[in-house]
Amino acid sequence: KVAWYNAILQPVFHLPYPDDTLAFVVLSTPSMFDKALKPFVNEEWLKIIRDPVDQCVSHHLSHVKEKFPDQKVDVIFDYEILPSRRPKFLAQTAAHVSGAAYYYQRKDVKLDPWGKKKIYGVCIHPKYGGWFAIRGLLLFPDIQVPFLEQSAPVDCVSTEEKRIELLEQFNFHWQDGRYRDIIEVKERYSEEQKAYFATPPAERFRLLGLTQEAQ
Asked: Belongs to which family (predicted)?
């Protein structure tokens, strides 16, 4: 419910919907690269002018909207920002309140070792660890669910030591991706997918076989 999200954020971040409005958080799992992105690029390469992943997600979520012709469905993507430069929604908070992934933050560590350093939080999924992404929010403004019960996210990094290790790796060594394996995972990105996301966005077109002319 939108209320779960709004309840833990300052008003400036609230979603402008009634409390009982139904919302879904959309995640991409490691298999998205082969099952969705590569087929999308093969079929739609002439239309790809921005980020292929963003356009792929947009393509598939537009199909979701088509499945509900009698419902109003609002979609907010993780990359969308307001004129104030704030994101339209806080993806990791949304994932946490929906029960999809646990958002580990500095406040989850009792003996804080970082002093005045800025420490960012990170979501960990109980099955995929850090090998997933939060892609968007689907809101159904005309569907109110007052009796929906909230499910807590799985606290899969439960020890103080592991939480410190997670936040250390994410904040100071995020490039090597070790934080993604803070727990035993069922599936992770392929080597091809790792290479894709490790490549600067402007050079990813070449990795996908898209030339600048095609772009």
From this structure: Belongs to the MMACHC family.
Q: How many CB atoms lie within 10 A of CB 149?
A: 6
What is the model's pLDDT at position 124?
98
Q: How far is CA 143 from CA 42, 51, 64, 140, 178, in A?
A: 36, 32, 16, 6, 40
- Give CA–CA dist 181/178, Å, rounded: 6
CB 98 within 8 A of CB 150: no
Q: What is the pLDDT of residue 17?
A: 98
**Spatial separation of the C-alpha atoms in residues 12 and 78, rounded to whole Å:** 17
pLDDT at residue 214 above 70?
no
Give CA torsion, residues 90, 78, 149, 157, to 10 deg. Answer: -70
Catalogue the E-assigned strands of the chain. 21-28, 74-77, 102-104, 122-124, 133-144
pLDDT at 202 over 90: no
Determine what percent of the chain falls in helix, strand and coil, rounding each to the nearest 5.
40, 15, 45
What percent of the chain lies above the pLDDT cut of 90? Answer: 86
Q: How many other C-beta atoms can be found within 10 angstroms of the C-beta atom of residue 43? A: 10
